[in-house]
Write a structure and sequence with these properties.
Layout lengths: L1 E5 L5 E5 L4 E2 L2 H5 L14 H9 L6 H16 L5 E2 L1 H16 L4 E6 L1 H4 L4 E2 L2 E7 L6 H10 L3 E6 L3 E6 L3 E7 L5 H9 L2 H13 L2 E3 L4 E3 L4 E2 L7 H7 L14
Parallel strand pairs: 7-10
Antiparallel strand pairs: 1-2, 2-3, 4-6, 5-7, 8-9, 9-10, 11-12, 12-13
Bound molecules: zinc ion.
Length: 247
């Protein structure tokens, strides 16, 4: 069935519920790369339409849904090709840049920053300008980009579902722990373990946001300006994010 739908932004798009096509930019740019039994072929308009008309959803996708549900229950999300996330990252980056009155710094972390070829979900580290909160950005993400806010934790961690295709976690960190947070959320686990061991050798405890002086149990009175500076402090050669892996 071919039908016209009006999106939240007021644009009219034409979807085809058998061929699983839409003439929105997202479908033309990204979704068309996937076959008809792959739910990544669905843009948000097709997803919304099938939510309202589940009887029209192709059987191949319904079976896939069940498999995916089972897979996510077992453990983490299935990894997807990095290229799948490029469109999301540029969308998120340009959104965060627009909120320069609120957002001081931001960086995509984890697997995407380490340039892994396959990625399970997106993590961002964000620090805010003094006395600002993240509310206006959350509203933009949910109302304009139509991301689904699924979890929040203590005004510090926000988890969004992006069109049912990917998960985005935003970690709000304090400006003075920016560098250590960046290192923490970039990973990988093995690299963090190495850095923690090295810090211990030098008499410190490295946490996700602080370097504690073991003899006083207090944070070290130094604000790292860059990741290079932190590696230097630990007397280690600097590692680019894509080298921080043992995979
Ligand atoms: Zn569409």
């Amino acid at each position: 069935m071919i039908t016209k739908i009006t999106s939240d932004s007021g644009n009219e798009y034409t979807i085809n519920t058998e061929e699983l096509t839409c003439d929105c930019p997202n479908w033309r740019y990204r979704c068309h790369n996937f076959g008809k039994s792959d739910d990544r072929r669905l843009c948000k308009h097709l997803i919304a339409y099938f939510n309202d008309h589940p009887e029209l959803k192709p059987i191949s996708l319904i079976q896939k849904d069940k498999l995916l549900d089972a897979a996510t229950e077992i453990n983490s999300r299935p990894k997807q090709l990095r290229v799948m996330f490029d469109a999301f990252v540029s969308e998120i980056n340009s959104a965060l840049k627009q909120f320069s009155d609120v957002v001081d710094k931001f960086e995509v972390c984890d697997e995407y920053r380490r340039l892994c070829s396959k990625i399970s979900d997106l993590h961002y580290v964000v620090s805010l300008k003094p006395d600002k909160n993240f509310d206006s950005v959350i509203q933009y993400f949910t109302n304009i980009l139509t991301y689904n806010l699924t979890r929040t934790l203590e005004d510090k961690t926000y988890v969004f579902n992006i069109y049912g295709l990917a998960e985005l976690t935003v970690h709000i960190v304090s400006p003075k722990s920016w560098v250590l947070s960046l290192i923490h959320y970039t990973g990988d686990k093995t690299e963090l373990l190495n850095l923690r061991n090295r810090a211990n050798q030098l008499g410190y405890t490295l946490t996700s946001s602080e370097l504690i002086v073991n003899s006083t149990n207090r944070p070290k009175d130094i604000i790292f300006e860059s990741e290079q500076q932190f590696y230097e402090f630990l007397q280690l050669p600097y590692k680019q994010p894509w080298l921080r892996t043992n995979e």
